Amino acid sequence: MPLDELRSLLARHARPDWTTALDGVFVSRVDRAAPPAPSMFGTVLAVIAQGAKHLALGDRIHEYGAGQYLVASVDLPVTGRFAGASPDRPALGFGMALDPALIAEVLLRAGPGDLPRVGTGAPPGIAVSDASEELIDAVVRLLRLLDRPRDRAVLAPLVRREILWLLITGDQGGTVRQLGLADSGLSHIARAVRWIRENYAEPFRVEEVARLSGMSVSAFHRNFRGVTAMSPIQFQKQIRLQEARLLLATRPRDVAGVGHRVGYDSPSQFSREYRRRFGVPPGEDAARLRLSGPAAAPALP
Predict the structure, then answer these.
(1) 34 in a domain, yes or no?
(2) Tally of domains within the chain
């Protein structure tokens, strides 16, 4: 069965850094359940072959397991963990970056009437569905190319397009299609998300970001929360705190300086919000990170 072969391929090709010889294709293997960890990831397809994963985004909880796939349509701060993983039965997953330009190319090849009608509003940033047998089979054929170096350059682009077409015509087709449309609601929100991530340490007015994204303030608020499950200010706070944690791993004795660098003028506010996010004050977390080393951010959700 395709899922059995998928498990075998993932177990054989898993690396510590989750990368593969195919650019933008990732393989994950997790041998033990761990506490929930914050991470960032971009636009990606993720398929679970064994085990299960729980993701929290804002006030939304997403769960998916073997035979299911997840589409992430913007770069979002999430908290996630694999459940029930063990050395005897590790969690195994496949990931593939979703390239908007390639999605646009596939859409241009579709004939009249080939695509169902979808809404124009911005869809949620994360969505989970059951994977069809055709999708699992295409993922298996892409991973088989890891054992066939001579064939990769010719066949991998073809299988990638097949996977994208199956996504476009599947349950999450509306989301994937909007990734390839420059003027979609999702593209407008992705523009705002990118701006906030690049300028996270600076204060901003929501009206200014709405204008940069090409939306009215009311439409921007509605669509931003619909995609990210957060307000723009809450989103900025999540980015600030995750960046602070990364900095504390290398500058554990400069808690106040790190807080100021990520945009906090008040050390007490930084400490309070950091503790609320990660469960411990920044100084205590920094000491722990210094001893254990920071956890690597997952390559796929």
Answers:
(1) yes
(2) 3
Identify any residues that bridge with 65 across adjacent strands, giving them in sequence order.
Answer: 52
pLDDT at 297 over 60: no
For residue 76, give its domain range: 2-179
d(CA 210, CA 130): 35
49 in a domain, yes or no?
A: yes
Are 78 and 209 members of one domain?
Answer: no
Element (H, E) at 7: helix 2-13
Tell me the per-residue pLDDT of 68-98, one tens digit each, with 9 for 90 and over.
999 998 888 888 888 878 999 999 999 999 9
**Amino acid residing at 133:** E
pLDDT level of residue 269 (50, 70, 90 thresholds): very high
What number of CA atoms fall less than 13 Å from residue 142's CA on the CB side? 27
Residues 82 and 22 in one domain: yes
Q: Of all helices (H) and strands (E), which one includes residue 197?
A: helix 185-198
User: Do 287 and 6 meet the contact criterion of CB atoms below 8 Å apart?
Assistant: no
* Strand duo 60-65 + 126-130: pairing: unpaired
Structure confidence at residue 152 (pLDDT): 96
List 25's β-bridge partners, or say none. 96
Token duo for residue 245: 């944690």
End-to-end CA distance of the chain: 25
